[in-house]
Specification:
Blueprint (H helix, E strand, L loop, with lengths): L1 H24 L4 H10 L2 H28 L6 H15 L5 H14 L3 H29 L1 H11 L6 H27 L1 H4 L3 H17 L8 H25 L7 H16 L9 H12 L4 H42 L1
Helix pairs in contact: 2-14, 3-4, 3-6, 3-11, 3-14, 4-5, 4-14, 5-6, 6-7, 6-10, 6-12, 7-13, 11-12, 12-13, 13-14
Length: 335
């Protein structure tokens, strides 16, 4: 049964991607797609790739601050490689890139896996906060896009009875979790004498220490500068890509900003590289600005595929460099 569930978890994201691709791309004019790629401005595309690389380095600097606060040292070079690799892995298996980042850090810098996973989770919470801020700013500068988008999403509502049932089940689960947590707290000393429970407790403790590492950072202002700057880079690379392709080249920074913000929501979907979800979000935004459905999907594909191409290049190169780094460390140990 467990093997069956594990297989389903691996297959389901691919199945969702195929469904999204079928419904979103069946009307794409691939001749138009190829034509727009040929007419693209390569200078803007290269610049966008450099901005992407810089945003990943900012992520690495931020991660280093978290790890340093937890008593672990690593170089910007090594952490940057793990970030590039993480994004590459996410193209294959959703959310597996974060685990891969931590695994590589464990191998290269002997950082406990549970600690780095907690730090990455803390990082993601900060990203959610940044995305929320960007969405609020997007609502301020482009209310028409956001409101029309929400209207489209909220057209189909779940019936009241099913919603009530979900809330009831959630309340039961929450109450059960609280009761179990209270019982564990009261019997913690006894439970810690059990080997398996003690090992699980140490893993959870390491994860928690990584998660709260953000509160131990000395220069919190610099940490937030890195976080905001990373998201500004995402906006700039989206703007550069929109400038690169003819249908979106004259749309301006406001459209690029809201496209980036809502596109990021699509990228957060639990599918490989946000495929399908990102296209839907971007197509909806461009549709508000008068780009018809088919061309909107072409533009979304242009933006997405260019970013994926850069991710594959940087991720593959980083994987090779990490391989040589691990071999170097192995040879130093043997000698």
């Amino acid at each position: 049964m467990q093997n069956f569930i594990a297989i389903i978890k691996k297959i389901l994201p691919f199945f969702i991607v195929l469904i999204l691709i079928f419904f979103l791309w069946k009307n794409i004019d691939f001749e138009s797609l190829i034509l727009q790629f040929k007419k693209a401005n390569p200078i803007y595309i290269v610049l966008s790739m450099l901005v992407m690389a810089f945003s990943h380095i900012l992520r690495a600097l931020r991660m280093n601050m978290l790890l340093d606060a937890l008593g672990h040292k690593t170089s910007t070079y090594t952490t940057s490689l793990t970030v590039f690799i993480g994004y590459l892995v996410n193209l294959i298996v959703p959310r597996m890139g974060e685990i891969t980042r931590c695994t590589v850090l464990q191998k290269t810098n002997k950082i406990p896996l549970e600690t780095s996973i907690g730090a990455v989770f803390s990082e993601r919470l900060i990203d959610v906060l940044c995305l929320f801020v960007f969405l609020l700013f997007g609502l301020f500068i482009a209310q028409d896009v956001v409101l029309q988008f929400l209207e489209t999403i909220l057209k189909s509502k779940a019936n009241q009875s099913s919603s009530s049932g979900i809330y009831f089940i959630f309340a039961i689960l929450l109450a059960t979790l609280l009761c179990v947590s209270f019982w564990i707290y009261k019997n913690l000393d006894k439970l810690l004498k059990i080997g398996l429970f003690n090992k699980i407790y140490q893993i959870i403790l390491g994860f928690w220490n990584g998660l709260v590492g953000v509160f131990k950072i000395k220069n919190k202002g610099l940490f937030m500068v890195y976080s905001i700057s990373t998201w500004i880079c995402y906006f700039i690379l989206t703007w550069l890509l929109m400038l690169a392709f003819e249908p979106t080249s004259n749309m301006g920074w406001k459209v690029a900003f809201i496209t980036n913000a809502l596109g990021a929501v699509g990228m957060a979907a639990p599918v490989q590289g946000g495929i399908g979800a990102y296209h839907f979000m971007v197509q909806q935004v461009l549709g508000v600005y008068g780009i018809e459905f088919g061309l909107g999907l072409v533009c979304a594909t242009l933006l997405h595929s260019t970013q994926m191409f850069a991710t594959i290049i940087f991720g593959t190169l980083s994987s090779i460099l990490v391989y040589f780094e691990l071999n170097k460390q192995k040879n130093e140990i043997n000698t």
